[in-house]
Automatic annotation (TrEMBL):
UniProt entry keywords in alphabetical sequence: Glycoprotein, Membrane, Symport, Transmembrane, Transmembrane helix, Transport
Keyword Lyase: no
Listed transmembrane segments: 20-39, 59-77, 92-113, 192-211, 231-252, 264-290, 302-319, 376-404
UniProt-annotated location(s): Membrane
Protein's membrane topology: Multi-pass membrane protein
Location of the region described as Disordered in the Swiss-Prot/TrEMBL record: 502-540
Species: Caenorhabditis latens
Membership in a protein family: Belongs to the dicarboxylate/amino acid:cation symporter (DAACS) (TC 2.A.23) family.
Entry keyword annotation includes rRNA processing: no
Compositional bias ranges of the Low complexity kind: 502-515
The protein's name in its UniProt record: Amino acid transporter
Pfam families: SDF
Any GO MF annotation of the entry: glutamate:sodium symporter activity
InterPro entries: DAACS (IPR050746), Na-dicarboxylate_symporter (IPR001991), Na-dicarboxylate_symporter_CS (IPR018107), Na:dicarbo_symporter_sf (IPR036458)
Length: 540
């Protein structure tokens, strides 16, 4: 019995080597982080410890842009415009529903547990960096502006953001007010992922309307997607080293863990409890009510992506691994996963919505402020909108300041929350990644039958799916990657037999189409042989 169980464990480790190494790297990073703290290492040493993790994050973020371009366009180009619209509407509605549920759960827990005690503010708290009087209207308008960038190349490294500039008027007013705050719409550093998604969505839908005439463009993006995924899979073998260095470096950079734990332990417990309950109860129940299927296989299939998300604390960097796990282990159609996951990495911020709601009410409890029912509703609505519109802002600083300004709470206590954000950010990211997987599975349940019917109406779409499967199997096969599919071979042989030996000879003799057959139609014309045979000896 023991030997059998040992063989099962060994077999599991062999089949999931990268998963086991990634989970062990998280444990090793925590142990090294706490074990090296008494040594009081220098800043140069800390920089060297963080360096492998920094390079690993940069390499993963480098792949986000080409992956979004290739995956979105290749997925939507294989769908009709009506199906793409239904998929987009279903995805956004699902994400809004889960964000609202996460916010309400966070408000309920922080009200019941009440982690904010005014007595813990005995020491002076440093001022939080101010972002001005952030307006909810400006946040919404920035969201819409970023959806339609004026330059798609500029959107790859800059996004639009409203800032507030203090201007001293040339003529002083009589009431003594000499400073005027004006809004300024400018560009700030950071990839405008939402604008890129909108552009790629429109590009892919237009290609789908062109049909077979745009087949060569679809093939290009399908092969580009396969190349990038193959590259990412190779790079993910460096994940254990990078995750170990990232976690160890974050722990070594903290100042006073004991003081933070004593002051914010109940706050951290509240946020983590909310995230865990949302992950194991709210989202699986919603998934079960919609699909009537067991949610456990989705969780099992996404373990590798969840662990990677916890280690990197970046949903965008985890995007390639999420796609691979969702398609290979959960059986989700690649057209759905390549659309839902990039969109979810931008707007699905269930963890952020719950975290921001808890943080704002926690600050109110610290200042002994009793929020009314209207203010609590304002917090819930603002947290939901801010989590979607400002999901790409690091540490949620602008989101929390936006909500605090909306309900009139002081912003100086925000800096205390950043001391534990290194841990909560990793948990939030893991929750968001798992939520994206459930969202893609729900969308597949709603649209899979329509996609199958559309594939039956278009032969070339079935051929593209066959080519994609061939590209996937090329990694473990010694056969050439570019050969004819079985449907193409059968089509070629059938027409060759029906047209006689003369037609066969003419097709073998020349690979160029005749002048009377210039219409590009992959549905009616047979595919040429993959090579031109050499002439026999007696014919030379």
């Amino acid at each position: 019995m023991k030997s059998r169980r040992r063989d099962e464990v060994v077999q599991f480790c062999r089949e999931n080597t990268l998963l086991v190494m990634t989970m062990f790297s998280v444990f090793l990073g925590v142990v090294l982080g706490f074990g090296l703290r008494p040594l009081n290492l220098s800043q140069e040493t800390l920089q060297l410890i963080n360096f492998p993790g920094e390079i690993f994050m940069q390499v993963l973020k480098m792949m986000i842009l080409p992956l979004i371009f290739s995956s979105l366009i290749s997925a939507l180009a294989q769908m009709d415009a009506k199906e793409s619209g239904q998929m987009g509407a279903s995805t956004v509605l699902y994400y809004l529903s889960t964000a609202v549920l996460a916010t309400l759960l966070g408000i309920f827990l922080v009200t019941v547990i009440h982690p904010g005690d005014p007595s813990i503010k005995g020491t002076e708290i440093a001022e939080a960096p101010s972002e001005g009087n952030v307006s909810p209207l400006d946040t919404f308008l920035d969201l819409v502006r970023n959806m339609f960038p004026e330059n798609i190349i500029q959107a790859t490294f800059e996004r639009m953001q409203t800032t507030y500039v203090a201007i001293r008027p040339k003529i002083a007013s009589k009431n003594g007010t000499n400073i005027i705050v004006k809004r300024s719409i400018g560009m700030t550093k950071g990839m405008n992922i939402l604008g890129i998604i909108v552009f790629c969505t429109g590009f892919g839908i237009v290609i789908s309307q062109l049909g077979e005439r745009a087949r060569i463009v679809v093939d290009f993006f399908v092969i580009l997607d396969a190349v990038i995924m193959r590259w990412v899979i190779t790079l993910m073998w460096f994940a254990p080293l990078g995750i170990t260095c990232l976690i160890c470096g974050n722990l070594l950079e903290l100042d006073d863990i004991s003081d933070i734990a004593s002051v914010l332990a109940l706050y951290v417990f509240t946020v983590c409890a909310g995230l865990v309950l949302h992950t194991i109860i709210t989202v699986p129940l919603m998934y079960f009510f919609i699909t009537r299927e067991n949610p456990l296989p989705i969780f099992k299939g996404m373990i590798q992506a969840v662990v990677t998300a916890f280690g990197t604390a970046s949903g965008g960097a985890t995007l390639p691994m999420s796609m691979q796990c969702l398609e290979d282990h959960c059986g989700v159609d690649r057209r759905i996963s390549r659309f839902v996951l990039p969109l979810g990495s931008t707007i699905n911020m269930d963890g952020n919505a719950l975290y921001e709601a808890v943080a704002v009410i926690f600050i109110a409890q610290l200042n002994n402020v009793q929020l009314s029912l209207a203010e609590v509703l304002t917090v819930s609505i603002t947290a939901t909108i801010a989590s979607i519109g400002l999901g790409s802002v690091p540490a949620g600083l602008v989101s929390i300041l936006l909500i605090l300004n909306t309900v009139g709470l002081p912003v100086r206590d925000v800096s205390m929350l950043f001391t534990v954000d290194w841990l909560l950010d990793r948990v939030r990211t893991a929750v968001n990644v798992l939520g994206d997987a459930y969202a893609a599975s729900v969308v597949q349940h709603l649209l899979q039958k329509k996609l199958d019917k559309a594939d039956a109406r278009h032969d070339y779409k079935a051929e593209i799916k066959g080519e994609i499967e061939l590209l996937k199997s090329a990694a473990t096969s010694r056969r050439p990657s570019f050969t004819m599919s079985e449907a193409s071979k059968e089509l070629f042989l059938t027409q060759a037999r029906s047209e006689g030996n003369s037609r066969i000879g003419s097709r073998i003799g020349s690979r160029r189409p005749s002048s009377t057959n210039l219409h590009l139609s992959w549905r009616n014309n047979p595919i040429d042989p993959p090579y031109t045979p050499l002439p026999n000896d007696e014919n030379v």
